[in-house]
Amino acid sequence: MTDYSDIRTQAARKGLFETPIAQCRLQNADGFMADIRKLILDKQAEDPEGVGRSNVGGWHSDVDMLHWGGAAAQKLADTVIAVARRMSAFPGGSHDDYHWLCQMWANVSGAGASNHLHMHPGNLWSGALYVDMGGAEANPELGGAFYFEDPRYPLVNMHNTRFRFANADGTPMQVMPEVRPAAGDILMFPAWLRHGVKPYHGDGVRISVAFNIDAVLK
Length: 218
Fold this sequence. Notes:
alpha+beta; Jelly Rolls; six-stranded antiparallel beta sheet; five-stranded antiparallel beta sheet; 3 helices
């Protein structure tokens, strides 16, 4: 009988179809952050009803923040477009072949507020600048965590609901991983990636500026 006991397997882990996420930290931006916080709270006072989108219980401004946000909003748009350009490729073309567009709005979330799972169709990138975490940076029990949904979910576990892919360190991949940004962080991700914000339980407010970015051929 043939003996195969000497056979060994040499395996290399490789990844395909990466989902790029950028987490940026603004530097030397204290004045900018103070200005944009005041702009948002002034706009909320002017238009306390806001609009309803993915927000549950929080305040959502109109999507024209570039029109009422002045130099601070324009600076943020320029900053996130620069990041988007670095994370984008156009085989056979150039970034300069496109007009880069940014749409922007503000969110103020008090106690109990959240954002249900959603995506931003018709755009390339989405993201948010975090202006005030309402104390959740120091106390995660206050909630308000940002989370993503694995775009392969629930397909990967339709056969066996306990199944998860293994990370490189052997731990199971999370279906809905959380991200806990700090004030001054910018989080960016593909606009098709579903995301949400868990309920905030603090006494303060969480303040953020959300945005969409698209590139339209000239």
